[in-house]
Amino acid sequence: MHKMKIRLLLIVTMLLVSACSGFRETGVSEDGATRQIVTEHTEEIEVPANPERVVLLRGVDVGNAELLDADVAGVGDVVADTWLAEEKIDPEITLLEHGDIEGIKAVEPDLIITYAPDAYIEDYQSIAPTVQISYSTSIFSPFRERLYLTQLYNLGVILDKQEKAQNIGDGWLEEMTRIQRSAGDMANGKKAIVLTKEAEGYIIRGEFSAFGTEAVYDVLDFSMDEALKEALEEGPLPIELDAIGAYDTDYLFVNVKDKDDEMRADIAEQAGISEAQVIMQDYDSYRLNDLSSVKHQAEEIINKVK
Predict the structure, then answer these.
(1) Confidence class of residue 21 from pLDDT cuts 50, 70 and 90?
(2) How far apart are CA 205 and CA 196, in angstroms?
(3) Is-contact 47 34, C-beta < 8 A?
(4) What is the DSSP string of 57-119?
(5) 19-161 and 183-305 share one CATH topology?
(6) Phi (first) and psi of residue 220, to 5 degrees
(7) Fewest CB within 10 angstroms: 59, 95, 166, 234, which?
(8) How does pLDDT run across 57-88, given as a tens digit for each residue?
(9) C-beta atoms surrounding 245 within 10 Å
């Protein structure tokens, strides 16, 4: 009985901790220069109230920071050679390799935002206040099931632009309805699979996992074969091309670094669909899932499919 009580107490404690996890502000200094925020890991961090030289090492934060009008000094080079770099990023912003400590020091940041976990966290913390974010939902986010919007909201909390982030997210949900109307019957009752071509082979990506999955499944509302959905519960699914036909699909969205008509024909044959139903996507641009990128991807997919 005693052991059972201890177990129940541990379970309740874990539930309370998880219920309180998520980005939120907990205080402001007397002079208003710093804010205290609690992260998703229940870690309290002091950050500048008005950061002027932010370094963003996660790809998802770059486009979102631009929407929030953040003052950014450096970004991770994951966005190099993407549509976002060409159309949205100020050319004066420094591109930084992950772990380039000297490069980060050189841009003199007053706030660093990075992945969770990040092996270089202690190095970053010696330079400026550093916040780690994992790609997960938050109980305090109004967009819980939409992970890409939760990332926007979390960034808003860190930058003291929470209200603006929520307004942008709410506006996007309305815009999604207009985009779906403009797409007509393109995705109505249609199934889709999102693939990435990696060095070791092909991988099927699930919902809200970048590479166009947000645009395909959330914005355009394609559905997914139920057996595939079940198989993806454990995470991304490595697959041989000759096994792709086991899953029912009307479209295949394939992320590749180098487009190849021969590859497209082979994929179509293995899936039992026409080449017109195989949509090739730029790997680097589609791996980004900030809100601007998701919108751009949805519009591009509509043009390609129609």
Answers:
(1) low
(2) 7
(3) yes
(4) -SHHHHHHHHHTT--EEEEEGGGTTSHHHHHTS-TTSEEE-TT-HHHHHHT--SEEEEESS-T
(5) yes
(6) -90, -15
(7) 234
(8) 999 999 999 999 999 999 999 999 999 999 99
(9) 13
Question: Which letter does DSSP use for residue 252 in this model?
Answer: E
Q: What is the CATH number of domain 183-305?
A: 3.40.50.1980
Radius of gyration of the chain (CA): 21
Collapsing DSSP states into helix, strand and coil, what is residue 128? coil
CA–CA distance, 97 with 77 (Å, rounded to integer): 6
Whether the pLDDT of residue 16 is over 70: the answer is no
CATH 3.40.50.20 fits 19-161, yes or no: no
CA dihedral 169, 173, 176, 180 (to 10 degrees): 160
- Tracing tokens 């991304």 back to the chain, one arrives at 236
- Residue boundaries of the structural domains of the chain: 19-161, 183-305
- Interatomic CA distance for residues 210 and 163, integer angstroms: 25
Cα dihedral 240→214→150→178 (10° resolution):
-170
